[in-house]
Amino acid sequence: MDSVNRKIIEMLQNDGRVPYSDIAAYVNLSEAAVRKRVKKLESEGVIDIVAVTDPKQMGFPRQALVGITVDGDVEPVLAHLRELEEVTYLVVTTGRYDILAEIVARSDAHLKEAIYKKVRATDGVRSTETFQYLEINKQIYNWGVI
Asked: Which residue among 21, 36, 66, 110 is the one 20 to 30 A from 96 at the CA level?
């Protein structure tokens, strides 16, 4: 990753709709060269330009992080959890939990259903602990160029 790509990424993280001409002026390249670099970064999976939404504004006012302890192999559990529409973030961890899953829900009843009938009912899940979000104080998307 060269410094030019880092600068391009930094600009896109600040505004994913910034014109290639603005980026080109910032990094001293042609617009075509910037477009080519952005397309390459996308095709290599380095960046993905998407609209970031606020779950509350999209009708999902309930959010929670669920710590999941698994009996045996985590892969079958992960495969099932990946398919759940309520799961928006899924990671394998070390420490107290094998997996952390972020869940969004339309209501308390929906959150309860997602946890009890979908997550906890998954074969291989031994136990869960739920941390319901009261408020989000920081959420960043430009950590890649820190």
From this structure: 110
pTM score of the predicted model: 0.78
For residues 22 and 25, give the distance between their C-alpha atoms in angstroms, rounded to a whole number: 5
Measured N-to-C along each axis, helices 3-14 and 31-43 cross at an angle, to the nearest 10 degrees, of 80
**Residue 71 φ/ψ region, left for φ over 0, alpha for ψ in the -120 to 50 degree band, beta for the rest:** beta
